[in-house]
Every structure is written in C-alpha cells, then in structure tokens.
Amino acid sequence: MRSENADKFNHDADAPEYDRDVLNESHPIRAGYEDLLKWVAQQVPSNSKVVDLGSGTGNLAMRIESPTKLICVDVSEQMTRIARSKLAGLPCAFVLADLLECFTELPVVDSIVSTYAIHHLAPTEKPILFRNVCDHLRPGGKAVFGDLMFESARAEAAICSEYSSTGRQNLVDDINDEFFWHLDVATDELKRLGFKVRSKRFSELSWGLLAEKPDS
C-alpha cells in the first residue's frame, strides 16, 4: 500500500539545501529540531537493529549509537543519496520506498524511529502505519517518533488562530498543507495496540513520542 501523498511529499527538489534549512530554528516549524533528534536517538538502546522511517539525509540515523543494523527508508532518491554519503562506514541498508509500502521489505527489529516524516500521512493512514510498526517490532521493542504535532484538534485551532491574528497566515497555510499529528489521538491509537506511551514537548509545534511494546 502506497500512501496517498507520497509523490507530493517526495523531497528530491529540497535535498541540496535541506541540511542548511533545518538549522534555522527561528522558524516555528524548525524550532526544537536538534534537541528533538538527539532525544529520539537517545531512546534507542545501543547494539540494536533499527529502522529509520523517512530517513531523509540521515540526520537522525547518524545520531543513533552503535546500531548492529540500521535500515534507512525514504521515498526520495536525492535525499537518500546524501544519506549514503553521510552514513558511509555504518552498518546501513537503504530502502527506497514510501512510508507505508516499505513494510513488505522490512524485518522484525528492536527499534523503529522516525522524525519529521509521518506528518506527511493523512489521518486515516497513521493508524495503518502504527499497526505495521507494531507488527515489525520484537516484544519489548521501541517505536520513537519526533514530529510536528498538536496536543489536540482544539490546540491546533487555538495556535492557528493566534498565528493568523498576528500576521502569520502563511504559517497556517503551511500547516494546513500537511497532516500534523494530534497527540491525543495518536496516543490512544498506540495504547489500543498495547503500547506503553509517553511524550515530551520540544517546541510549540514539535513533540517526541516513545511507544514501548510489551514483552509478551
């Protein structure tokens, strides 16, 4: 199954400037970027077999400590080309695929991580991804996400209203063009799958979420 907007959110055209652009944390969408990536990487035990969903140019993968195997998944050929260069020497494999279609090629692993990618999935697609993540994690494994999120639909409405009223309608338009998570909904969905879930906020628009699968 391929996600509905896979082609729209293929970032081949953005690849050459991507690593420079993400350094601009004065922009609300980029605020907290570095701290969030570090936090996600720190949740992954060393000597783990890890899948990185939406691995982009490898900024998260390069922060993961001593993986035994690191499988980087991204739909963008140009982003993956940059990641191959940055991750040279690490035990990496690369899967050029969409966030949903990739699971037919993935093994069961210790950890699945993702940063700033799953907000490209429509609300009806995120539960499908969560079920696939659950199926591809060993008992006791971890799923760790860092992404653009609102606490709830009500929080999204309030923040977007504030942006609009202070002359930042362009930011509201950017938000409406994608599918930022609603943390309360995602937490409930992951708990229904049996995960133990906790979250941490890094900026007005970015959160980290750790989902731990039961041992049995």
Measured between the Cα atoms of the first and last residue, the distance is: 28 Å
By DSSP, the count of extended strands is 8
The fourth-level CATH homologous superfamily is: Vaccinia Virus protein VP39
Number of alpha- plus pi-helical segments: 7
Shape: globular
Descriptive report:
31% of the residues lie in helices and 24% in strands. The protein is α/β, with parallel strands linked by helices and 216 residues long. It has one domain (12-150, 179-212): Rossmann fold (3-Layer(aba) Sandwich), CATH 3.40.50. Strands 1, 2, 3, 4, 5, 6, 7 and 8 form an eight-stranded mixed β-sheet that branches. Helix 5 (153-165) packs antiparallel against helix 6 (169-176). The radius of gyration is 16 Å and the shape is globular.
Summarize the structure.
The chain is built from seven helices and eight strands. The protein has 216 residues and is of the alpha/beta class.
